[in-house]
Write a structure and sequence with these properties.
Blueprint (H helix, E strand, L loop, with lengths): L4 E5 L18 E6 L1 H4 L14 E5 L7 E3 L16 H4 E2 L2 E2 L10 E9 H4 L10 E2 L1 H11 L8 E5 L10 H6 L3 E2 L1 H9 L4 E4 L9 H12 L2 E4 L4 H5 L4 E6 L9 E3 L3 E5 L2
Parallel strand pairs: 7-9, 8-10, 9-11, 11-12
Antiparallel strand pairs: 1-15, 2-3, 4-12, 4-14, 5-6, 7-13, 13-15
Length: about 260
């Protein structure tokens, strides 16, 4: 059975100077200890032995990541009217943090708007409408169910490593109207292959998903191979890091589908 499944890696790579939100700290990695540094440490135990370690500096919102429900608030209130003051400390959040992020093993639907509109990549700052989503799902022949993972493809994933400026500033995304359409479908998670959900109403949409509906969000996904294979329905798996108090998690999501 396993041999009949194809695995799709939906995460982007992490690297120095990768595109991150302008308000976020940059992602940085350096070698903390080299093999030369450590070659003498255990030589009396195992002659010739050495090892190397890196140091990574990053927020939990670099690259492919999932937002915890404490990440954004409206009037200092979170999902189910929990107040910021109730759960915040400078050591981190006591509720809705990344340690509460679920392990996702869910049915997944890819809404490939770019392919439906016969575009390799949607036009700059294009706002996907509710009708775009509806017609794409009908074109794919897929039915959405409560609790699904919904992934939306704009085509901008390919620019993550090749055109930082366009990826950071010109991306297409969903409209507020489209977000309202998605919320009515009651997904457990929404993923997208851009930086911030929407070119215009990103903050409102984040609040609509996370604060109003308790829907998790994954950004900076790579949906290109799934789109090439026309895999519109799959099994989605994502395991966030359990970082106590954190507002999100770096994550490497995958999807499994029948090999064609």
């Amino acid at each position: 059975m396993v041999s009949s499944l194809k695995l799709y890696d939906l995460g982007q790579p992490y690297f120095d100077n990768m595109p991150v939100h302008p308000e976020d700290p940059p992602f940085m990695m350096t070698i903390y200890k080299s093999h030369e540094d450590t070659s003498h440490l255990l030589s009396n135990v195992e002659p010739g032995f050495s090892y190397s370690l890196e140091l990574v500096v990053s927020s939990m919102h670099s690259g492919t990541h999932i937002d915890a429900l404490c990440h954004m608030a409206r009037n200092y209130r979170f999902f189910r009217d929990v107040s910021v003051s109730e759960i915040f400390s400078h050591k981190g959040f006591k509720k809705y943090d990344s340690s509460e992020l679920p392990v996702f093993v869910k049915r997944c639907v890819l809404i490939d708007v770019a392919s439906f509109l016969k575009r390799d990549c949607l036009p700059q700052k294009y706002e996907i409408t509710a009708n775009d989503l509806l017609e794409t799902v009908q074109w794919e022949g897929i039915t959405l169910r409560r609790g699904d993972v919904i992934l939306i493809r704009t085509g901008y994933a390919k620019l993550f490593t090749s055109d930082h400026k366009a990826y950071l500033h010109d991306y297409a995304g969903i409209s507020l109207e489209a977000a309202e359409w998605i919320v009515k479908k009651e997904p457990s998670l929404v993923g997208i292959d851009n930086l911030a959900l929407s070119p215009r109403d990103s903050l409102k949409i984040h609040l609509k998903f996370m604060v109003d509906a308790g829907i998790y969000v994954i950004k900076n996904m790579n949906l290109e191979t799934m789109a090439q294979d026309k895999v519109f329905e799959s099994l989605f798996i994502a395991i966030p890091l359990k970082v106590i108090g954190a507002t999100g998690s770096l994550v490497r999501p995958i999807a499994l589908a029948m090999n064609r």
